[in-house]
Amino acid sequence: PLDDGEQVGELGTTAIFAFCKNAETRQYLREIQFSKQLKYLNVLLDVSPISEEIAQSWMQQAYNHAITAAVVHNSNNKIIKQKNDEIRQKDGEIRQINEIIHHKDGEIHNVHETIHHKNEEIDHLKNRIIALETSTSWKITKPLRNIKKAFWALTE
Fold first, then answer.
1. Rounded distance between C-alpha atoms, residue 42 and residue 44, angstroms
2. Phi, psi dihedrals of residue 108, rounded to the nearest 5°
3. What is the DSSP track for the chain?
4. What confidence score (pLDDT) does residue 13 get?
């Protein structure tokens, strides 16, 4: 039975690797439980006399498991690559948005500076008006300004 088991193991492995043309998948199959299952089956065949039919059944189960694992692995790889591409695209969008935000922050800073300067100018002009209106000359000329207002009111 050992020879048959080894032959079945070799045939099963060959069939799976023939099916899997993708190098990543073949590497994955080397690393997964399938290889351990084949070794386990060979040990079983060595120590217990089982029929070739049972060995074929076990090998078929191992083969089916390996194919399923390879398909899932390939699907997962495709999904991971797709998600990584989506992440790279979103990262690019985020970078563009961050650049826009940075630019807008600069514009906002400039507007705040302008507002600050305008407020200082307004305060300066208010102080000048207060100084003018509280001056002696402004107080002395108040009656003349009132006469002028009355004259203009009559002519209109």
1. 5
2. -60, -45
3. -HHHHHHHHHHHHHHHHHH---HHHHHHHHHSHHHHHHHHHHHHHHHS---HHHHHHHHHHHHHHHHHHHHHHHHHHHHHHHHHHHHHHHHHHHHHHHHHHHHHHHHHHHHHHHHHHHHHHHHHHHHHHHHHHTSHHHHHTHHHHHHHHHHHHHH-
4. 45
What per-residue string of b and e applies to 50-59 under the rule 16 or more CB within 10 Å gives b? beeeebbebb
Rounded CA Rg of the chain: 45
Which residue reads 């089982």 in tokens?
Answer: 50
pTM over 0.85: no
Q: How many residues does the chain have?
A: 156
- Mean pLDDT, residues 56-76: 71
Residue 9 confidence (pLDDT) above 50? no
Closest by CA position to 29, among listed 65, 75, 80:
65
